[in-house]
Amino acid sequence: MADNRQHAGSQAKAVAESGKDAACVSCAPKRIGMLGGTFDPVHIGHLRGALEVAALLELDELRLTPSARPPHRDTPSVSAQDRLAMVRSAVQGVSPLTVDDRELLRDRPSYTLDTLESMRAELAADDQLFLLLGWDAFCGLPTWHRWEELLEYCHIVVLQRPDADSESPDAMRNLLAARAVSDPKALKGPGGNITFVWQTPLAVSATQIRQLLASGKSVRFLVPDAVLAYIEAHGLYRAPN
Questions:
Q1: Beta strands in the chain (DSSP E)
Q2: 192, 119, 112: which is closest to 157 by C-alpha?
Q3: Average pLDDT value over all residues in the chain
Q4: Is 231 part of any domain?
Q5: What is the CATH number for 105?
Q6: Domain of 158?
Q7: Residue 155 burial (CB < 10 Å; 0-12/13-18/19+)?
Q8: Residues 88, 120 contacting (CB under 8 angstroms)
Q9: pLDDT, tens digit (0-9, with 9 covering 90-100), for 36-67
């Protein structure tokens, strides 16, 4: 009888410990990434880079966030609806990539600070938010709307290429000295730091893809098959007759 009671007690303790572990997992801070852009069109460079960073940082979700009217970029070649549809088709079934359309719902320019503020308001206080930026975008931060406030809402992850100029602008050096973290996995807290991640170099760009399509050439394997099918079905990026 004593053995049975001891066995039952051990089982109860094991169940309790299991429940405690599950609760700890469920209450652990989330790790959410944001990758903005015009995605005109979305291509393998965007997607491969996103997956690499998501794996390195162990993100629960990486949100591709198409911009409607980016203040620092040319007007996109195709409609917001088409670009959104292509991004959705590109990430379908590809975890942890998702699509966030909040910038397309605005009737004003797409400021990254507004997007981060909106995302942060939906997260728990200790959830981590990561803003992914290419090197050129990072170097251009001093021209962004209220750029000094970005780190109040997120960590910044700079996507580096081996062929990129490694000299940061003078305006960024003091910030890097105070906020840079060499190991991306060492980022702590909901935001406030900057780190750099090396990417697999892929010589592909949206400009190149648009030019190929305008000249009637194939872009197969430069964009996902679902994106190519959408482009062809809707006659996007064709040169005017």
A1: 31-37, 61-66, 97-99, 128-134, 155-160, 194-198
A2: 192
A3: 89
A4: no
A5: 3.40.50.620
A6: 31-202
A7: buried
A8: no
A9: 999 999 999 999 999 999 999 999 999 999 99
